[in-house]
Design brief:
Blueprint lengths: L9 H5 L4 H9 L3 H7 L2 H4 L1 H14 L7 H11 L1 H16 L11 H9 L14 H7 L5 H4 L10 H6 L3 H7 L14 H12 L6 H17 L2
Helix pairs in contact: 2-6, 6-7
Length: 220
Amino acid sequence: MFEYFGKADYYDKLNCETDFQVFCSYVMQKEKMLSRFLHAPVLEAERIFLQTEKDFFSKKENGLDLPKKMMLGELYTWLPNESLSRSDRMCMAFGLEQRVPILDKEIVELAFRIPTKYKIGNAKKGKVILKKAMKEYIPDFIYNKSKSGWFCPASSWLRTDMKDFVSDVLSESYNSGAAEFIDFKEVKVILNNHNTGKEYALHTIWSLVTFQLWYKQFMR
């Protein structure tokens, strides 16, 4: 159905049949993994993906190249629903004030008018035009630094400090009603495979833990 979700490397991802499939291969969890533990009536992957394509790609992608389509897709989906939502909650929970000035409406509109070739230098150096504009304000060691992601050691936490907690939360007895949606025997296999290094499944496990905690709090 959506075989491109199983593709692992950059070459395969960039050679999906449509631009929307490229976007999904980067930002969505793989359907093959989800189908292992989610019961079919809950998954509804095809309907969800097609609706997402209709809402955020089909009507807004005319005249844009692939990088800008990817940016636009994140602007309408991941950014408000994940990144900004989570950072806002975390900051407010601890009385911190945060600002996202690069998301100013006029800056975003300007950014989409700038040709992609001025934004992306190579795989290790992105945000080219932004860095050039800020060069006189930042030290050379930052200006010349290669592009890198923002990571936390959550994968190793699941194997160490959080191991017992996660094992308890992902057991069928933690939420008796959740078995209606989730195959907990398969969840145990996925968790064990991750902990032994056989299969990387951080995002899947983290999503399941979050669901279980939410379900116990609000649905019991």
